[in-house]
């Protein structure tokens, strides 16, 4: 069973930012959260991660409400990379990735050789083995994002939550990062701004507006001309290529 949201609503500062949203990803799939700024994507990820508790509804992991699970236990199954995941301490890349082993540490410290092997594997998955001894602040933006994903992978999660992981990356690094995400043997929920990237890499999408889910399903079924104009207020032409939609936007008059 995967991480499931059942009719969750959440208020921040008295404002309803997630309004009766349900989400049930297929295990091993990539689900894109789409919608304009302020639509509730990041807020929904906070609720899924257990950082914020819903005012109504519930989030389940293996059928159990995550509010009743210890943070440490939850972190062994659910990992997250936020928009501004960074560190002010001048750590090496290996040190950053090793932070992902924190939920698995015993009262007597780390698990030694096993932790080392898991960190090595996470670095390799992210294509950062050659950079493992580099200082964090010497990395490019794309490398830092990959290091944060490697840190999340070192948690050995079954669920990976990503909030705008392609922000501030050039096209090449966007494609490389999402290709990596797509290859991971985990269930991924990822908030994205770029609809064409979502169409290219996601198995399903959930489109949000004003905190509510307005459409959900495979990209080819959901990302239509009418839906995009309704939610984003822009005109476009959607064509289907190889089963995936391709979106050409019309500049405003």
From TrEMBL:
PROSITE patterns: ABC_TRANSPORTER_1, ABC_TRANSPORTER_2. SUPFAM superfamilies: P-loop containing nucleoside triphosphate hydrolases. One of its GO terms (molecular function) is ATP hydrolysis activity. Residues 3-235 form the ABC transporter domain. Gene3D superfamilies: P-loop containing nucleotide triphosphate hydrolases. SMART domains: AAA. The keyword Chloroplast does not apply. Keywords: ATP-binding, Nucleotide-binding, Transport. PANTHER family: ABC TRANSPORTER ATP-BINDING PROTEIN, HEMIN IMPORT ATP-BINDING PROTEIN HMUV. This is Iron complex transport system ATP-binding protein. It comes from Microbacterium oleivorans.
């Amino acid at each position: 069973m995967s991480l499931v949201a059942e009719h969750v609503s959440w208020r921040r500062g008295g404002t309803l930012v997630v309004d009766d949203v349900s989400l049930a990803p297929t295990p091993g799939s990539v689900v894109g959260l789409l919608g304009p700024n302020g639509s509730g994507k990041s807020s929904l990820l906070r609720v899924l991660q257990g950082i914020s508790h819903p005012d109504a509804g519930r989030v389940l992991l293996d059928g159990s409400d995550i509010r009743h699970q210890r943070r440490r236990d939850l972190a062994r199954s659910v990992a997250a990379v936020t928009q501004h995941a960074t560190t002010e301490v001048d750590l090496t890349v290996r040190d950053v990735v090793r932070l992902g082993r924190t939920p698995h540490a015993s009262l007597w410290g780390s698990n030694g050789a096993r932790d080392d092997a898991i960190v090595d594997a996470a670095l390799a998955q992210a294509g950062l083995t050659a950079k493992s001894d580099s200082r964090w602040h010497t990395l490019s933006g794309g490398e830092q994002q990959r290091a944060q994903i490697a840190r999340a992978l070192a948690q050995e999660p079954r669920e990976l939550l990503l909030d705008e992981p392609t922000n501030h990356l050039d096209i090449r690094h966007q494609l490389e990062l999402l290709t990596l995400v797509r290859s991971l043997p985990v269930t991924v929920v990822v908030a994205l701004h770029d609809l064409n990237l979502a169409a290219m890499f996601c198995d399903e999408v959930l489109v949000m507006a004003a905190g509510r889910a307005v459409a959900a399903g495979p990209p080819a079924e959901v990302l239509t001309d009418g839906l995009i104009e309704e939610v984003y207020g822009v005109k476009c032409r959607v064509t289907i290529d190889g089963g995936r939609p391709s979106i050409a936007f019309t500049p405003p008059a």
